[in-house]
Design goal:
One of its GO terms (molecular function) is phosphoglycolate phosphatase activity. This is Phosphoglycolate phosphatase. One of its GO terms (cellular component) is cytosol. There is one protein chain. By secondary structure, this protein is α/β, with parallel strands linked by helices. The protein folds into 2 domains: 153 residues, Rossmann fold (3-Layer(aba) Sandwich), CATH 3.40.50; 62 residues, DNA polymerase, domain 1, CATH 1.10.150.240. Helices cover 41% and strands 13% of the residues. The strands form 3 sheets. Strands 6-5-2-7-8-9 form a 6-stranded parallel beta sheet, sandwiched between helices. The chain has a two-stranded antiparallel sheet with strand order 1-10. Helix 8 links the parallel strand 7 and strand 8. Helix 1 crosses helix 4. The model has no long low-confidence stretch (mean pLDDT 94).
Length: 227
């Protein structure tokens, strides 16, 4: 007897393009502090490691005082926790989630995005019901690429002992490193925020269009042992 394997997804750069909202919130804070705004591509290049790393990179890019980081982060979070107006789902992502749910795959989210912002954006796009577990960047002391958040997501899905038989879907170096550290097969979405060429990133398979995802899941790891 076997059951469909658990699948965990990253969020920013994988299911959603949230960089425009992050960019808008960042530049609002910079303008309020009389600092020259940053272009979208620069802010996008800073996304993936969580809010603290985002602002460390912004501070370095604009030569700001690192001691001001807590105040800047607080001002940013006041806007960011419910920023969804400029965020978009990647084409076909919702349909792929629905198809995987129909096949019986338990699904979770493992992201470095703060948990409140994660839950807000999932609700905004009507995706909450797909996910039996959601781990955010502030859910644990560790963030990706540390394996703890991914292990915790599988455990919350009831698959603590079967994590290696599940799949992790993400877009970035943080995700690839996390999957490798957790010994979980990694599916790379190539349309996200990575900086490294695809061929230089460790992954089991890659896809550029969500219409390809269900087929990849079925080909790679369609079922895992039950009990």
């Amino acid at each position: 007897m076997s059951v469909p394997c658990p699948i965990v997804f990253d969020l920013d750069g994988t299911l959603i393009d949230s960089a425009p909202d992050i960019h808008a919130c960042v530049n609002t804070v910079l303008r309020e502090n009389a600092v020259t705004p940053l272009p979208l591509d620069r802010v996008r290049s800073f996304v993936g490691g969580g809010v603290e790393l985002l602002w460390s990179r912004i501070i370095a890019a604009r030569g700001l005082d690192p001691a001001d980081r807590p105040v800047l982060i607080a001002a940013f979070m006041a806007r960011y926790h419910d920023a969804t107006a400029l965020t978009r789902l990647y084409p076909g992502a919702a349909e792929a989630l629905a198809a995987l749910a129909d096949l019986g795959h338990p699904m979770g989210i493992c992201t470095n995005k703060p948990l409140a912002a994660t839950r807000n954006v999932l609700a905004h796009f009507g995706l909450t019901g797909f996910f039996g577990a959601v781990i955010g960047g502030d859910s644990l002391p560790q963030k990706k690429p540390h394996p703890a958040p991914l292990h915790a997501t599988f455990a919350a899905l009831g698959a603590e002992d079967a994590a290696a038989a599940g799949l992790f879907v993400g877009d970035s170096e943080f995700d690839a490193g996390c999957a490798a550290a957790a010994s979980v097969p990694f599916l790379l979405f190539t349309g996200g925020y990575r900086h490294t060429p695809v061929e230089q990133m460790a992954h089991e398979a890659s896809f550029s269009d969500f219409s390809q995802l269900v087929r990849l899941v079925l080909e790679m790891r369609p079922r895992v042992p039950a009990g």
